Amino acid sequence: MSKSIVIVDDHVLFGQSLKGLVDSFDDYRVKAVYKNGKELQENLRKMDLRPDLILLDIRMPVMDGLQTMQWLKQEFPKQKAMALTMEDDEEILLKMLGLGCRGYLVKDIDPDKFKQALDSVVDTGYYVDKEVMEELERKERSKEQFSEREIEFLQYVCTEMTYKEIAAEMRLSPKTIDGYRESLFVKLDIKSRVGLAVYAIKNNFCTI
Amino acid sequence: MSKSIVIVDDHVLFGQSLKGLVDSFDDYRVKAVYKNGKELQENLRKMDLRPDLILLDIRMPVMDGLQTMQWLKQEFPKQKAMALTMEDDEEILLKMLGLGCRGYLVKDIDPDKFKQALDSVVDTGYYVDKEVMEELERKERSKEQFSEREIEFLQYVCTEMTYKEIAAEMRLSPKTIDGYRESLFVKLDIKSRVGLAVYAIKNNFCTI
DNA sequence: ATTGCAAAGGGGAAAAACACCCTTTTTTGC
DNA sequence: GCAAAAAAGGGTGTTTTTCCCCTTTGCAAT
């Protein structure tokens, strides 16, 4: 039976083209192509779709690879997913692996190797060395990680809303927001809201 | 007769996938896929290959889109080429257009629009995304309305420095900085430093 | 010379952000 | 169920940012 694949990539042209390529492999079928994590989220929830593998672009505007992976890990811990990146940003990659991502591909891989990587992930579960992965996973998890609420909060920090307004929007006490802010300052070694905003932008926690 | 296309993109996976997509259009055929400008150069010279359109990635390691376009303009002034970019970097885009590039596509265009763009370039000679163009003009216009000092100041707003510290750095009174801030708030219809920081980042007044 | 105008600098008050230390409620893992 | 941990909320004081209205300086044009 052929393996089902879901592609998540904001570059529609690439996503659709990749679908064409994958479909040309006898033993793989692309079940869907989504533009961002949010679309995946919605469709994974309602449609009883459990693909053998999700190919996840890292840089996406609405809900990026990291966020999506974080969500996937919580909601569908067994779901296999693989990062698909443009440039290999080590930091983000490490985070992805830490979140249980099964491997990663840079987009300049050639189609043959790509096929091999797919086979490897679907069969063995991993594309790169298993032990290294597990090691990384343990290390990363203990490192910095944000709570759901903190991540949600990060989406507001690069707007012109005051903390009070953000609190209202999130239906929380301003004091709680103050707590998130404080917690993030410590975790990220940041001292001001501007620093937080820049971090959020850099790491795709918000769209500007 | 079907139109011939050449794709130049260092991301082999993307290039090959795109080839698949283009070949799926009845009236187009991909004659070749190259990894960079140099490959294109060599092949365009020796093989008597004159495609109807060259799709040119901008960011490539060996010989990038700009260089390639420059060479094309000299060697084959009539050759139609179109930029294919990941993120829309205005500056480079402007240069490309200056070099006679026939249009530009961001890679998150959807396949239908992509097809339309191809048709447009091959038929009319040009394709430019309207929104992108308007965005570009707006940004360019806005750049000239700041003073030298204000622009210098903008480079500091997305750091964690306080205004007082920025003033010290610029050897100005904090009150003067306050004036720049105020002036920029009015000009840009912004109400907070975060807004200013986001503006500065968006419009490349500072690097993050 | 004088008007004209923009950049630079200032005072002071109110709002927002930051910091630190603390309590209550809710989850979560045996 | 219970203890531990995480999330949410609180009090209070300091610093920074924001806002408005004001003075001085320098330069430029008629």
Automatic annotation (TrEMBL), chains A, B:
Boundaries of every HTH luxR-type domain copy: 139-204
DNA-binding is among the record's keywords: yes
Residues that bear 4-aspartylphosphate: 57
A molecular-function term among this protein's GO annotations: DNA binding
Keywords: DNA-binding, Phosphoprotein, Transcription, Transcription regulation
Entries under Gene3D superfamilies matching the protein: 3.40.50.2300
Record domain Response regulatory: where: 4-122
Biological processes per GO annotation: phosphorelay signal transduction system; regulation of DNA-templated transcription
UniProt keyword Transferase, yes or no: no
UniProt-listed SMART domains: HTH_LUXR, REC
Protein name: Two component transcriptional regulator, LuxR family
